[in-house]
Amino acid sequence: MVNVLRFSDVTYVRNGRSILGGVDWSVESDERWVILGPNGAGKTTMLKLATTGDYPTTGAVDILDERLGSVDIFELRTRLGFAGSATAKRIPDSETVRDVVLTAAYSVEGRWNEAYEAIDVRQADRILAEWGLSALADHRFGTLSDGERKRAMIARAVMTDPEMLLLDEPSASLDLGARENLLQMLSGFAASPMSPAMVMVTHHVEEIPPGFTHALLLRDGRVQAAGPLAETLTAEHLEATFGMTFDLSVRDGRYAAVARV
Ligand SMILES: Nc1ncnc2c1ncn2[C@@H]1O[C@H](COP(=O)(O)OP(=O)(O)OP(=O)(O)O)[C@@H](O)[C@H]1O
């Protein structure tokens, strides 16, 4: 398997504050990772570094075999798929859902005068179908529900066949049905050997799609545990990460955690 992401002794300091400290982490092309941790633990900062959004203060970040700091990040970004709330904010409300996906082929937000190849349009329509969005293809992005919006942003992120897909809280703010629907789709996507490496940040163990293989637990910018899901996502590691005792259960690949009173 090919290494797609490596953090080597990464620190990230801003305004005199240590946000990440001594992070070592490695992702292979067939792995699907979830990053869990309390508010402010540094999860989004890790995604920011992994998507070329910033540089580590010390240590090294290697993305798709390229060292951050000595590579053209604009070229590297075309090989990554990223969906998060910040990316959704950049999409014009008036954009159709088909164009939200299609414009990823040109790395732009908002269609202007680009002429798209028939092959790109076919690819967009195939992806819209895969993410349950065909019926909404001509709807305006601004009219979508939160759940539809999240799916549209993931569809956009996979449009260019990225070598690594990174998702920041894809299930946040979704109702139960929309969350379950999205989890099923993510689970199906994760199961395909054709899919890229995946890294997903979430706040809740209930939001881990079955089929995800690895977990990284972060607290105060430090890795508490990282590795294969079954060995890493334990009540003991959750306690060390969140500072509370949990009853943790897993059924049919779905995790649930309830604080022990
Ligand atoms: N530029 C900055 N200057 C100072 N502090 C920062 C800066 N960027 C991030 N932080 C702080 O770093 C910490 C980690 O932020 P980050 O957004 O990575 O956490 P998170 O784990 O994603 O949190 P949440 O779960 O609440 O989204 C936070 O306390 C945040 O306030």
TrEMBL record:
GO terms for cellular component: membrane. Pfam families: ABC_tran (PF00005). InterPro entries: AAA+_ATPase, ABC_transporter-like_ATP-bd, ABC_transpr_CbiO/EcfA_su, P-loop_NTPase. It comes from Leucobacter tardus. PANTHER family: SKFA PEPTIDE EXPORT ATP-BINDING PROTEIN SKFE. Keywords: ATP-binding, Nucleotide-binding, Transport. Residues 5-245 form the ABC transporter domain. This is ABC transporter ATP-binding protein. The keyword Nucleotide-binding applies. GO terms for molecular function: ATP binding; ATP hydrolysis activity; transmembrane transporter activity.
